[in-house]
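Before any further analysis, backbone shapes were mapped to integers, which produced the following:

***
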Amino acid sequence: MSTNVFSPKHPSDPSGAALLRAVRAIEMDASVTEEVEACPDAVGEILLDEAARLNSIGKTQEAVVVLDALIHHAPLVDDRQYAAIQKLDHLRGEDGQVSAEAERVVAQLLQPSILQEGPAHLLGEALEEFGDLESALTCFNVASRKYLSGPAEDLEDAHLMLAFELAGRTRVRKQLGYAPDDFDIALNEISGPDRSLTRGMRGSGEGLDGSVFDDRDFDGVEPPLHNPGTGKALRVVCRREEFETAREQGVVKDTGADPGSDGGADAYFRYVERGLREQARLNPEVVWYLVRFSVEEIEDYAHRSGGDPGDDELQAEWGEVVPPDDHRASVWPPERNDPCWCGSKRKYKKCCGSAANR
């Protein structure tokens, strides 16, 4: 039996009952209780979202109570680790220094065979921000295991373009002064102005190397009135119900599937979501819009313009003429309780906006 609460071998209550008892004293929104009752298997994910919400409205103490309960009682090891990493923000002093408790948490997470791939990516970003680059690199190596398990030349551009774990690894290795390895070289080859990690996007932002990926505005859409004067950017995506057809006909080429996996519509939309989140992190002032296309209208546009319907630039050009009030266009991200933008008919927070999609 492991005494490290973050270990996959640490015993936990798989029903989630112990976790719910631990947060009973917190006055949570009624919708949270309803969600837990409807989706008991997702109790950890739901409470991670609730902790983030409590923190965002200034209820820091309540958020920490929820995070502590998750750390000790969440049924899934990933949720326990995500909660610990989320709590690190609360363990920094006013001067930004890391507390002794935070150092203990990080030391536990970094013990051999403990850290899971998803949490490793987030912890790597946190440790990079703290200035602990060697530990950050350890995390990014764990997060990148699925890419590092084979030779770099076997990875397709489609996998590399949104491999943010590898991007973090390359970034930290550069800061540490390490000579580029094969993965650094492969990633940098696609991260310049023309092939940054932003295929199918229009607007302004930065690639891995700090280069601007496209300085053309999305002129067909104006930012919401509550955010005047900000930048704007566009991401063109396939409609969910046409994904299989689009993939078969080569209209969608970058599906977001992991190496060796065929993937599907869910993998594709999670892939798009992660790309948008990363761009929002790098460029918080930019307002993002999604425009959904059908295979027929993209193929028709390609025929009229003499281009390839699977070309990202052509798809972005098509998206620029879609009016902002068109049913195919929407602002990203939606509200947490609104329907997900991907067309799954689930709430955003239970679908692409889920804490598990990191």
Summary: Residues 192-230 have pLDDT under 50 and may be disordered. Strands lie at 201-202, 231-238, 286-293, 329-332. DSSP finds 16 helices and four strands in the chain. Residues 201-350 form one domain.
